[in-house]
């Protein structure tokens, strides 16, 4: 089976000289829940951003559904991004606007520019946004401003926004790193549900191995921009753990 | 030792030498001989300053006892070399203050002369007994000033908004063409801002004739540049996370600005604009002094007739309006944040 996403020998060098990724090859298969682990600065965020091309690789190739997307530009790049949803550690919502307006931002790629500037979204799009809010259990909050919500609720709004793109893949960059343990589980359960019931491929960077074991179907580990592990979460032995996180590291449980 | 540091030290010594030479010759020498040199600088004088510069730099390099030498050899200087360098700095400071005193023609004798004190007492006495009968004329002129300031702010708003985004580094740096536009706009904004509105008013009065229109144009131009700078700095300090999030949905760059940038800058923009209107009112009174219309022009008319009680009335009114505008704009900005 050909992978849905293929990163082949991807290297990313930033203008300041930092090498965030060094010849990394990762394949993501349709319908899996892939976790990316590694220390802060190991290249997890850059890896995710090479998939939806918020970042352009310096070397190597990126394929999505067998299409070479490595150096897309303009309209083609925007069409590529539309089919991949993304959520972030800091949620990145418009705090002063309503939940509904924030979810509709996910549909911008499907709305003509001039209409979106008037804030004029069709009734069908509003219906779809309310439906997506229902999926994340926030339909009754649609009219409230985002700043009135809790952290976990904000992340669910961000998931609903990503769903407005009708994505084939959902990228999640440390989606629960700013949440308390109970909320972290609730957010990850929504991702798990989307993965199982809607067949959405999920690529998610995570800090806690306990969360990886509980939710991910497969794991890749990065260390200083290099791929150091690929396999099932259960295969991460204490020895491999130290290889990924360094000799000093000790595992912290998050239940 | 790096060449760049050496050049910097030599330049510092040369400039200091030429400066001391010029100040001593022009001010100290002129004062002691009881007359300043003529209003032009002869070739011989220029050569003299060049000699001072070269000589001082040379002494610095050979004897290592100048501020420039301190930049290069601060660790290895002998105590006497250090002391000489310090004394050169102190002498320069003293010379500079003496020069300033002399150039500004500071004269305590004139300040406290009995004739001067008499005139001042007459003037301040009149100012404290404002002529109330011109209150309605002054109020009408004040309203004119406020409206001139409002017009400059309102007309300046759309171009300032556009420039605010086009002069924001974070939005423009991605592409060489847009970055070139950004650089040109920055230079333009800084140039327009660095020229006082009063001077722009003089320029525009030649263009469209003396009057409120010239004053309004001057403030308009200055407002566009000043607001564009404030706006663009606000755009540059936004949280890039929201921008990235909107980009990741596959939105068009215009949509990214509208949904990723605008919500973050809307309220600060409003606060800046209100502040600008408030400072334009203050500016409009000053521009009125050179014929820009409104209260400033009225003040100049009464001043020309030496009608100090009327002038006192106008000054009081200006103070009251500026205070009220200041207070209101501060309260509105408070409510916004």
- CATH level-four homologous superfamily name of the domain at 1-83 and 208-255 in chain A: P-loop containing nucleotide triphosphate hydrolases
Question: What fraction of residues of chain B sit in β-strands?
Answer: under 5%
**Pairing-aware structural class of the strands and helices of chain A?**
alpha/beta
Mean pLDDT of chain B: 88
Helix content of chain A: 25-40%
Number of H/I helices of chain B:
15
| End-to-end separation of chain A | 35 Å
CATH architecture type of the largest domain in chain B: Orthogonal Bundle
From the coordinates shown, what is the CATH architecture of the domain at 1-83 and 208-255 in chain A? Answer: 3-Layer(aba) Sandwich
Give the gist of this structure.
Chain A is built from nine helices and ten strands. Chain A is an alpha/beta fold.
Question: What are its keywords?
Answer:
heterodimer; A: 255 residues; alpha/beta; Rossmann fold; 6-stranded mixed β-sheet; 4-stranded antiparallel β-sheet; 9 helices; globular; B: 337 residues; mainly alpha; MetI-like fold; 15 helices; 84% helix; flat
């Amino acid at each position: 089976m050909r992978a849905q996403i293929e990163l082949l020998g991807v290297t990313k060098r930033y203008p300041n000289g930092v090498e965030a990724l060094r010849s990394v090859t990762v394949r993501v298969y349709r319908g899996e829940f892939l976790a990316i682990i590694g220390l802060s600065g190991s290249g997890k965020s850059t890896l995710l951003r090479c998939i939806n091309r918020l970042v352009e690789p310096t070397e190597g190739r990126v394929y999505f559904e067998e299409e070479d997307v490595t150096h897309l530009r303009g309209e083609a790049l925007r069409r590529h991004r539309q089919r991949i949803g993304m959520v972030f550690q800091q949620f990145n919502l418009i705090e002063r606007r309503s939940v509904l307006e924030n979810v509709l931002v996910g549909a911008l790629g499907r709305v003509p520019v001039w209409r979106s500037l008037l804030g004029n979204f069709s009734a069908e799009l509003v219906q779809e946004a309310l439906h997506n809010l229902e999926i994340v259990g926030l339909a009754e909050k649609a009219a409230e401003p985002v700043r009135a919500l809790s952290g976990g609720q904000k992340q669910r709004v961000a998931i609903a926004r990503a769903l407005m793109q009708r994505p084939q893949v959902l990228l999640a960059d440390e989606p629960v790193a700013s949440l308390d343990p109970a909320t972290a589980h609730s957010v990850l359960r929504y991702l798990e549900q989307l993965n199982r019931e809607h067949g959405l491929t999920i690529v998610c960077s995570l800090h806690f191995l306990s969360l990886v074991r509980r939710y991910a179907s497969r794991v890749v580990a990065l260390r200083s921009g290099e791929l150091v592990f690929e396999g099932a979460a259960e295969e991460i032995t204490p020895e491999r753990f130290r290889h990924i996180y360094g000799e000093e590291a000790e595992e912290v449980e998050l239940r | 030792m790096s060449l760049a540091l050496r050049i910097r030290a030599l330049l510092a010594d040369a400039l200091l030498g030429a400066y001391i030479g010029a100040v001593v010759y022009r001010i100290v020498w002129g004062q002691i001989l009881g007359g300043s040199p003529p209003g032009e600088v002869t070739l011989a004088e220029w050569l003299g300053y060049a000699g001072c510069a070269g000589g001082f730099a040379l002494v610095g390099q050979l004897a290592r006892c100048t501020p420039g030498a301190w930049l290069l050899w601060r660790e290895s200087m002998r105590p006497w070399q250090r002391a000489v360098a310090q004394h050169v700095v102190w002498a320069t400071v003293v010379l500079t203050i003496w020069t300033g005193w002399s150039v500004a023609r500071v004269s305590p004798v004139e300040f406290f002369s009995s004739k001067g004190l008499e005139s001042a007492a007459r003037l301040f006495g009149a100012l404290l007994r404002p002529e109330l009968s011109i209150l309605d004329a002054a109020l009408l002129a004040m309203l004119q000033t406020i409206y001139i300031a409002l017009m400059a702010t309102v007309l300046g708003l759309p171009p300032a908004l556009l420039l605010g985004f086009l002069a924001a580094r974070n939005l423009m740096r991605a592409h060489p063409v847009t970055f070139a536009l950004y650089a040109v706009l920055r230079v333009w904004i800084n140039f327009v801002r660095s020229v006082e509105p009063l001077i722009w008013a003089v320029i525009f009065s030649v263009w469209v004739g003396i009057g409120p229109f010239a004053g309004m144009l001057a403030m308009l131009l200055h407002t566009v540049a000043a607001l564009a700078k404030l706006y663009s700095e606000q755009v540059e300090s936004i949280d890039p996370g929201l921008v990235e999030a909107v980009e990741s949905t596959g939105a068009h760059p215009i949509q990214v600005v509208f949904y990723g940038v605008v919500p973050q800058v809307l309220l600060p923009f409003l606060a800046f604009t209100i502040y600008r209107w408030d400072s334009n009112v203050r500016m409009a009174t000053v521009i009125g002094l050179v014929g820009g219309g409104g209260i400033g022009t009225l003040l100049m008319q009464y001043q020309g007739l030496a009608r100090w009680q009327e002038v006192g009335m106008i000054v009081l009114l200006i103070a009251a309006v500026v205070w009220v505008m200041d207070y209101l704009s501060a309260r509105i900005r408070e409510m916004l944040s």
